[in-house]
Design brief:
The complex is a heterodimer of chains A (114) and B (111).
Chain A lengths: L3 E3 L3 E4 L5 E7 L5 E8 L3 E10 L2 E4 L6 E7 L2 E6 L8 E8 L9 E2 L3 E5 L1
Parallel strand pairs in A: 2-11
Antiparallel strand pairs in A: 1-3, 3-8, 4-5, 4-9, 5-6, 7-8, 9-10, 9-11
Chain B lengths: L3 E3 L4 E4 L4 E7 L7 E6 L5 E7 L4 E3 L2 E6 L4 E6 L8 E8 L7 E3 L3 E6 L1
Parallel strand pairs in B: 2-11
Antiparallel strand pairs in B: 1-3, 3-8, 4-5, 4-9, 6-7, 7-8, 9-10, 9-11
The chains are: A mainly beta (114), B mainly beta (111).
Chain lengths: 114, 111
Amino acid sequence: DVKVTQSSRYLVKRTGEKVFLECVQDMDHENMFWYRQDPGLGLRLIYFSYDVKMKEKGDIPEGYSVSREKKERFSLILESASTSQTSMYLCASSSRTSGGFEQYFGPGTRLTVT
Amino acid sequence: RKEVEQDPGPFNVPEGATVAFNCTYSNSASQSFFWYRQDCRKEPKLLMSVYSSGNEDGRFTAQLNRASQYISLLIRDSKLSDSATYLCVVNRPSNTGKLIFGQGTTLQVKP
């Protein structure tokens, strides 16, 4: 069974803290994605990685960075958390070889920045 | 204009009803279309792909009109378990595997 896991379901951090969100997939997928989901705004792409050590900015990369040192793991980093980054963060992966369009999502991390 | 637009609803329908959701997309170069389902406090999951000729999966029928850049989802004989948010999804034409998600349409099926 396809599986994408995220390190935490709920996280509370203080303004200015550095925050790491981890995502692991067990499907040997090339593509991995980080989204945030906010009411009224839907899913917005933060960063995308199509291979190890490769990354591409999405629609809202400001205030975020990513790391992909291994194929199965994609990390999202908030360098200095702000209250505007309070959101639901969803990681996803997809296979490039099978067309790359069905994305499998992790359960999400609800981050609150106070 | 949003790249993918949906009526957010909510749609409140009785069990057994037929309900239709619509979606429009702005980039005529998009080639792949999908409906995802997202249950409350859960992650999105692929419901079905949408093909040019239209396709059916049990009680669910998806249609695509490329000329109007319009996608629809029809649910027949609604069940309580169909209550969820339905996301209209379109690929980005750069073909990198990136998708554009609509905001979603919320369906509540009542007994």
